[in-house]
Write a structure and sequence with these properties.
- This protein is an alpha/beta fold and 184 residues long.
- It has a single domain (2-183), classed as Flavodoxin domain (Rossmann fold, 3-Layer(aba) Sandwich), CATH 3.40.50.
- The chain has six helices and six strands.
- The protein has helices at residues 15-28, 56-67, 84-92, 95-98, 115-127, 157-183, and strands at residues 2-7, 33-38, 70-76, 102-108, 131-132, 137-139.
- Strands 1, 2, 3, 4, 5 and 6 form a six-stranded parallel β-sheet that branches.
- Helix 1 (15-28) links the parallel strand 1 and strand 2 (33-38).
- The radius of gyration is 16 Å and the shape is globular.
- InterPro entries: Flavoprotein-like_sf, FMN_Rdtase-like_dom, NAD(P)H-dep_reductase.
- Belongs to the azoreductase type 2 family.
- GO terms for molecular function: oxidoreductase activity.
Length: 184
């Protein structure tokens, strides 16, 4: 299975990106193919439907999303919503590229939790006809410290992340099996 992870912050050393790197390590430990798209390193022009020629960075994003069986989207929470950088990237993506694919939402907030950004992200995924994983990952103030291996240091957080990633992988498998059966 192929997974595409999109880090939706343009801040260097963003906790949402560090958290997503940990998710990446969990997926790779299961011998899954993982493509990591870091929007801080892959800047995209502002989306406009008028632009018919796609910037090479946009084309790379679209190709990796289309090629994936599952997506993991990570965002910092800004003013109760997703980052503008991630929203801009998602505006380029069409429903045909996400339809029927599992999506795990991940957030890091400066306050207690990033629930508002996760709700907004899941609404966007529904509008793209993706299948939201019933779990999400949210870390907030006090739980955003990471060890040298990138794993969260907060008690219980590591187990909750591993559980959510495990359920996401299982959902992705089930949807891939269903899609393969429907194609026959």
């Amino acid at each position: 299975m192929k997974m595409t992870l999109i880090a939706g912050s343009n801040r260097k050393a963003a906790t949402s990106t560090i958290l997503l790197r940990y998710v990446e390590s969990l997926l790779k430990a299961q011998s899954l193919s993982v493509t990591f798209v870091d929007l801080q390193e892959l800047p995209l022009p502002f989306f406009t439907p008028d632009n018919q020629e796609l910037h090479p960075n946009v084309q790379h994003l679209l190709d990796t999303v289309a090629d994936a069986d599952g997506l993991v989207l990570a965002t910092p929470e800004y003013h109760g919503s997703v980052s503008g950088v991630l929203k801009n990237a998602l505006d380029y993506i069409s429903a045909g590229q996400v339809s029927g694919k599992s999506v795990l939402s991940v957030s890091s907030a400066g306050g207690p939790m990033g629930v508002s950004s996760l709700l907004h992200l899941q609404s966007i995924v529904r509008n793209l006809h993706g299948v939201n994983c019933p779990e999400w990952i949210s870390i907030g103030y006090g739980s955003n410290s990471f060890g040298p291996d990138g794993a969260p240091l907060a008690g219980g957080m590591r187990g909750r992340i591993e559980g959510a990633v495990g359920n996401f992988v299982e959902l992705t498998r089930m949807l891939a099996i269903g899609a393969a059966a429907a194609a026959k």
